[in-house]
Amino acid sequence: MQRQTLQQQTSGSAPESISPLDVESGGATDGNSKNHPSVWMATLTSVFTRLESLPTPKWLQSSATTTSSTGSQPPPLVTGLNRVLLGTQPACEVVTIGGIHPPRYLCYMISGSLCDIIQFFIDVALHFCFGIDDPSLCWALGFGGSIVFRHSSHRYLVFGDYVGGYWNSLKRMYAGYSIIIVLSTIFNIVMTRMAMLPHYVAWLITLLWTGIVNYFILKKLWSFGGTNSTNTNNAAS
């Protein structure tokens, strides 16, 4: 009798835990399902949900958000993070900080600055670890390698869903950036060989003007060849 009871206890399966992504989709998913969220997505969703529950400090509340908020409950500090992670719209369209939408170009500057740091570390690795002494070659390889990261970062922060899928969008971005890679490399050659500027002084000067030009190129490249779901939804509304 005790053995049967023990078998019943051990054979009973524990209730399956529901991740935050399961809550978003309306229920738990099977562990073998393709739609089952990955661990890092579930972790990010939990962190974002926690951030969106924080109230806006009084010093950050604008008069508009103060008058529009009902009752004594302050508006949330940040909203829309999970919509960016799980949806197709960029942060500049759905995220609010203290009730204010950040401008698109500000989001582009944040996204670009993060990827500039990645490009810098690629350049440093090429120069010091792989022994490439040519600053212009380091610039071209570092810039080319950082485009993969820029592509994903700009999708979530600036421009929204990929047009034509990830790989088509990435190929289109590399094709458009190829002109800037060539022009910026020539500019870097002039800075280092004619103006005799140090490696990373020329790197910084080259970075400053390419960042501004890249924004206007990306605005054309991102929607070239189709319309993403964000623009389609906006047009329909």
TrEMBL record:
Keywords: Membrane, Transmembrane, Transmembrane helix. The keyword Membrane applies. The chain crosses the membrane at residues 174-194, 200-218. Residues 1-16 have a biased composition (Polar residues). Residues 1-37 are annotated as: Disordered. This is GtrA-like protein domain-containing protein. It comes from Seminavis robusta. The lineage of its organism: Eukaryota, Sar, Stramenopiles, Ochrophyta, Bacillariophyta.
